[in-house]
Amino acid sequence: xxxDVADRCLTEAxxxxxxxLGSKHEYVGETLVNLGELDHATGQYGRAADRFTEAMSIxxxxxxxxxxxxxxxxxxxxxxHAATREFDKASEAYEKCLSIRASKxxxxxxxxxxxxxxxxxxxxxxxxxxxxxxxxxxxxxVKRMHGRANDAAAADVxxxxxxxxxxxxxxxxxxxxxxxxxxxxxxxxxGDANAEAGGSTGGARSAVASIADAYLEIGTIRExxxxxxxxxxxxxxxxxxxRLALGxxxxxxxxxxxxxxxxAVQQILHEHDMALKSFGSALSLYKTLLGPDHVxxxxxxxxxxxxxxxxxxxxxxxxxxxxxxxxxxxxxxxDHIKVASSLDNIAGLYQRQKNNEKALKCLKEALRxxxxxxxxxxxxxxxxxxxxxxxxxxxxxxxxAMECYNASLNIxxxxxxxxxxxxxxRGSSGAGxxxxxxx
Length: 439
Known about the structure:
By secondary structure, the chain is an all-alpha fold.
């Protein structure tokens, strides 16, 4: 393995430099940086950060605390910390790098844009979307100014700007960034992702996986905009490229997620048999990769239950919804909102089987959870009360039905105003009103 050979050579070089020149020589620091880069490339991020820290100590002593080589090591430390999702440490390292580079280099320099972009990604991961948008936008501006908005790093910045825009609900702007990122990544591969995916290098496979990621995000926005046919095409291309990049024998969770997204759109399009096939593929992979009791297994189970419900196969729908409910309680706790959603689904099935007592029991528990987690005046509490009113009406208990209806109406008036249209028809607001695809 080439990495093992490189590691042995660099380790021996480090030993020789220390023996000849002492442990604080600059050559020792540079060799530590090389070893850190190798560790990072092989996924040993913690060890990489330790190497960079040791190297930086040498550079500070020999070259000064504000030398550009110190900034370089701070940047590399930040990248390694970000890879382990230690975002506080990553942010601190990037900020120190940025401070040195901004003071030493001319305004709008590419090295400053590089770290600004990485800092923006950290802001995204920590939910600071305004700061992420500012940092990523500034990085892209400088790259464009220098004619460097045509490389893989620029494509990454565009991709993350798209993700930020989604979080900020600017979906049209997000779509532009994702499409620009996709176009650039395709150009960098010579327009043929298929040929690159068949290559032997990890870099080529990673590039194809990045294209697949862009297709997934584009599909998500198209689905949000109710462009379901276009969304389905994007998700299917994402799945094809992910499988191409990984190989059929190395499918991972991202492949399962793509199957799941495809199934969700197929369900919306009433392609129920195709949806069952897609959700089934996702379920099988989730079980194999994550274990039979994982929360992602519950997600797939829930959506398979919804498809069987739509096909009027109440027996299989109940089987899958009850298992999804069990797994959600196991993973998320008795009081999680998704547990309440599962109870809605089960209640809807009981109601259709004319088992109103069990349906009511499920909805009462869903009401308890939603009141606890969302507050007494939340719209979802109102919807649950409305569903309970329908069941009381079916049971002939009109006083309790009216009590639930009035409570639901008062919540909606307070939240939406008396002039707003409320729930709609009996069928759309019944016990199964929480029956939506889980993502």
